[in-house]
Design a protein that fits this description.
11 strands, two-stranded antiparallel sheet, 32% strand, 4 helices, 18% helix, nine-stranded mixed β-sheet, alpha/beta
Length: 179
């Protein structure tokens, strides 16, 4: 039989649409991000800020990085080609990232060492996710993110399970613990 018949043409042609989520990435560029993170069994170490940029670079390679911002006590959008060269320094203000993510209405990944406090009610966004590098705890003000499984810890070359616990002074904190 001849399969080039016009009646079969629609059955042979398929249209495929592929939808992917893209993220804005907010990289903490405060002074504390110049500390070094151990990479576990690997004998070397890398600065937290470089580790954060490597994550953003990998997201760019996967075509899911939308916009990239550096933040400290101020925030600036950077061109992706300047990912490893841009630097702003300063303190840490994670709330501005959350507010900007709400404003632009896009999912966001905030990469930080977690040295900050936020308003538990006002500074929450269901589409913000936090990757805390080089640390194994964050203040209780991030509890809503933790309860909604929006925080991940990466310390000493390992991802840690996020829990709510107490620090050595008996204060309630968000913790990363070995799984």
């Amino acid at each position: 039989e001849n399969f080039a018949h016009v009646a079969l043409f629609d059955d042979l042609v398929t249209k495929t649409r592929k939808y992917t989520t893209s993220f804005d990435v907010y990289i903490d560029d405060s002074g504390s991000m110049s500390c070094y993170a151990s990479m576990g069994n690997y004998s070397g170490s890398v600065k937290y800020r470089d580790l954060a940029r490597m994550v953003a670079f990998k997201l760019e390679q996967m075509n899911i990085l939308r916009d990239c911002y550096l933040f400290s006590n101020r925030m600036t959008k950077i061109d992706k080609k300047h990912l490893f060269s841009a630097h702003i320094g300063g303190g840490t203000d994670i709330a501005q990232c959350i507010k900007n993510s709400k404003k632009v209405n896009r999912p966001a990944i905030i990469i930080t060492d977690g040295w900050d406090n936020i308003n538990m009610e006002e500074d929450y966004h269901k589409d913000c996710f936090i990757l805390c590098v080089g640390m194994d705890s964050m203040p209780k003000s991030f509890e809503r993110f933790a309860k909604n499984k929006q925080i991940m810890f990466y310390n000493n070359g390992k991802f840690l399970k996020t829990t709510i616990g107490e620090n050595k002074w008996g204060e309630s904190v968000i913790q990363g613990v070995a799984a």
